[in-house]
Write a structure and sequence with these properties.
The chain is mainly alpha-helical. It starts with a helix and ends with a helix. The strands form 2 sheets. A 5-stranded parallel beta sheet has the order 2-3-4-1-5. It has a two-stranded parallel ribbon with strand order 6-7. It is built from 33 helices and 7 strands. Helix 11 packs across helix 13 and helix 15 packs parallel to helix 17.
């Protein structure tokens, strides 16, 4: 008997407090195990019938006796009919085996009128509650199990109607009785009756945990949300308790948050509040080391149990980048590089602050406060670092070795005013904008020039660059047109003109027609004096599109489009003239204006090496500066490379004046660190060209390969007199 009572109480607990678990463990969810057959339902309902009957009838008896003890007239007949109807109706629907039958029984009872209608309301309400609970908790079950579960809960609702509101049924008549029972069913459905107890338990659990954080997880067991999945109203201090548990044991705390998010979906708001509080708390830092570790701490936000608030998801990536930059400054050995990393962090932090100021959201003030605290911390670190740099006397290293120079206001990119002048002359005040070809040997600074165009050409131009080396650009005509529209959209956005790029869907049906219409809209959006300059960098890679069969149509579109548009110009950049690529290019761009990019002049090299940035304090002994100019002949890549290696070498020796011997050491290091450049020159020369270079380097007879000789001179490997154009290249060839 004891085992039966324990089993029955457990079933009632599951039905009332954990309906989804009841569905999985008792009815079967239809996935992990099959749902109950009709025979199994008969057995289960029959087994539960005695205890349900006892609860309903016993409750009605106790209520009735209590009413009479206080002199209240209790209608025993109506109340017993109500109780009997709840039990009988629940058992009948549990055995019905179909949703339609259950609903039909409810309708028939409702039509009968009187007390039967009250019973039907309680029964159908229980059925609806069962179905709603299953759906809310994501439980998959078939119709039969849902009906059985709904019928069981219908009986429980009947119990609540009889026991809690039996007085209303026993002492009231007519319409009032129906209203009372309806109210009872609603209160039972939404669990309003037990909410005060749940709220009190939740509050008690939090204050117990807050008083002694070590007991947070024991206190969690008292919180109703840990064992009751049907609490509709928000519980007080639930999110605070989840945060407190996470602070005590991070992994277990997140496990409980994930449990509430997945199994207690009615309390999802508390989960979001807890996650937001944890994220903001994780952003707190008092030292640079703590700030640097935040990037690791915030990894959980990429796979959070629930979606974080929008203002948080937008700000966290920026906070993460800033934390990584601070971490980089800690790991770097060079003091000047440390300072550069902190400068970058401060720059991004300033951008984050500006974006937060115009952002809406409950968390924005706290995020802005965190950003201000980070700024003060990073500024203090930078000031201390600056003092250390001044004490050590380390030279800042602004030189860029191996990658194009990005847009800068300093002399780390210098010269090229003649090239910029050619571009301006071609574009300004021209009735028909010509197509430009910026060509020259590799590593001569063409991409660096493109990077400087937004600054050098001024606000009346919007230069847009498409890197044709990107494989995605050469996938198809649609992909190329989409990337062009994205590049132009980004360029215009820098000039505060918002134009959405073409979407993938728009290009599916008529890509060329939509592109033309899009360009027309771009021209209409441009201010009166503004022009767009589309730059196709490394344009030779588009030859693969011609070979694939779709490139010709795109080139025809580009030629036609930009020939007839006065506000949009086009510039190709690469290592070859159009004539070297054949008639497919010369026929389409026969009127293109060629602009050659070659070596820097000595008067352009001097400011680059002596004052690339304002705080550059390295000086040169007699002959040292001339040694760099002589070895490179103004080749931009090699100047940057030798400058980089020289500063590194000077800092190793803690000296600030470079001698001829120091320059020689920097050149030797560049021959090793820049070997990819030298191998590229060697490979591009081909076998005949390599034979010529080898002969010149060793003072041997030069073979007669006219075509190769012409290529070497055209690409600035050799001078017109047949000597090496760059002495350091000759030194490298001699080592082969």
């Amino acid at each position: 008997m004891g085992d039966y009572l324990r089993w029955a109480c457990w079933q009632l607990f599951l039905i009332f407090f954990q309906p989804s678990r009841f569905d999985r463990e008792v009815a079967g969810d239809g996935v992990e195990k099959p749902t109950m057959s009709f025979k199994e339902r008969v057995f289960y309902v029959g087994k539960m019938a005695p205890v349900m009957t006892a609860i309903v009838f016993g409750g009605n008896l106790l209520i009735g006796l209590a009413c009479e003890a206080y002199g209240i007239n209790y209608d025993w007949l109506r109340s017993w009919l109500f109780a009997f109807g709840c039990v009988a109706g629940g058992l009948a629907v549990g055995l019905a085996g179909g949703l339609a039958g259950g609903l039909a029984a409810g309708v028939e009872s409702d039509v009968a009128g009187g007390v039967a209608s009250d019973v039907a309301f309680g029964l159908v309400g229980g059925l609806v509650f069962g179905l709603a609970s299953n759906m809310a908790n994501g439980v998959a079950s078939d119709v039969a199990s849902c009906v059985m579960f709904g019928a069981a809960v219908g009986v429980i609702v009947g119990v609540m109607d009889s026991v809690v509101f039996g007085v209303m049924v026993g002492v009231m008549d007519g319409v009032i009785t129906g209203v009372a029972v309806s109210v009872a069913s609603i209160l039972g459905y939404f669990r309003f009756i037990t909410y005060p107890i749940n709220a009190a338990l939740s509050t008690t659990a939090y204050f117990k945990a807050n008083r002694n954080p070590q007991t947070a997880f024991r206190a969690w067991r008292w919180c109703p949300i840990s064992w009751n999945e049907v609490i509709w109203l928000p519980l007080p201090y639930l999110s605070d308790l989840l945060v407190l548990m996470t602070k005590q044991h991070r992994e277990e705390g997140f496990r409980q948050i994930a449990f509430v998010a997945a199994e207690r979906t009615l309390q999802r708001r508390a989960v979001l509040s807890a996650l937001a509080e944890i994220a903001v708390s994780d952003l707190q830092a008092k030292t640079p080391q703590e700030l640097a570790s935040i990037s690791e701490t915030l990894k959980w936000t990429t796979n959070a149990p629930a979606e974080l608030p929008k203002e948080l998801t937008e700000a966290l990536p920026q906070f993460d980048r800033i934390a990584q930059q601070v971490g980089q400054s800690i790991e770097l050995r060079s003091q000047n590089r440390k300072r550069k990393a902190l400068d970058q962090a401060l720059s991004e932090l300033q951008s984050l602050q500006k974006s937060l100021i115009v952002t809406r959201g409950k968390l924005v003030p706290r995020l802005l406060q965190v950003a201000n605290e980070w700024q003060a911390l990073i500024k203090a670190s930078r000031q201390a670092l600056q003092s250390d740099i001044e004490a050590r006397g380390e030279i800042p290293n602004p030189f860029v070795f191996g990658t194009p120079v990005t847009e800068s206001e300093y002399n780390v990119f210098t010269g090229r005013q003649d090239i910029v002048g050619h571009i301006e002359e071609s574009l300004l005040n021209a009735a028909n904008l010509p197509t430009l070809l910026l060509f020259g040997p590799r590593r001569m600074g063409k991409t660096s020039i493109l990077n400087q165009l937004p600054r050098l050409l001024g606000p009346d131009f919007a230069p847009a660059m498409v890197d044709c080396q990107a494989p995605a650009v050469r996938e198809s005509a649609n992909a190329l047109l989409r990337y062009i529209s994205e590049a132009m959209s980004e360029a215009l956005q820098r000039r505060r003109i918002l134009i959405d790029p073409l979407s993938v869907e728009a290009l599916k049906s008529e890509p060329f027609g939509f592109f033309e219409k899009w360009l027309t809209n771009v021209e209409k959006a441009l201010p009166e004096q503004m022009r767009v300059l589309l730059c196709l960098d490394e344009y030779e890679r588009l030859q693969t599109a011609l070979d694939a069969g779709w490139g010709a149509d795109v080139l025809d579109l580009l030629r036609n489009t930009f020939q007839h548009r006065r506000r949009i110009a086009m510039m190709f950049t690469g290592a070859h003239r159009f004539a070297e690529l054949g008639p497919a290019w010369t026929d389409r761009f026969i009127s293109a204006r060629n602009i050659r990019v070659s070596f820097l002049k000595p008067d352009e090299v001097v400011p680059l090496l002596t004052k690339p940035i304002p705080d550059f304090d390295m000086t040169y002994a007699d002959g040292a500066l001339e040694g760099i100019i002589s070895a490179t002949n103004g080749q931009p890549f090699l100047i940057q490379g030798i400058g980089f290696e020289l500063v590194q070498f000077m800092n190793e020796g803690k000296r600030k004046q470079a001698t001829i011997a120091d320059v020689e050491e920097a050149i030797s290091r560049t021959l090793s660190s820049g070997d990819a450049y030298f191998f590229n020159v060697w490979s591009d020369a081909g076998e005949d060209g390599q034979a010529i270079l080898q002969a010149i380097a060793t003072s041997s007879p030069v073979p007669n390969f006219p075509k190769a000789m012409r290529w070497l001179k055209d690409h600035d490997v050799l001078t017109t007199e047949g000597r090496f154009a760059v002495p350091i290249v000759e030194r490298w060839v001699k080592t082969i």
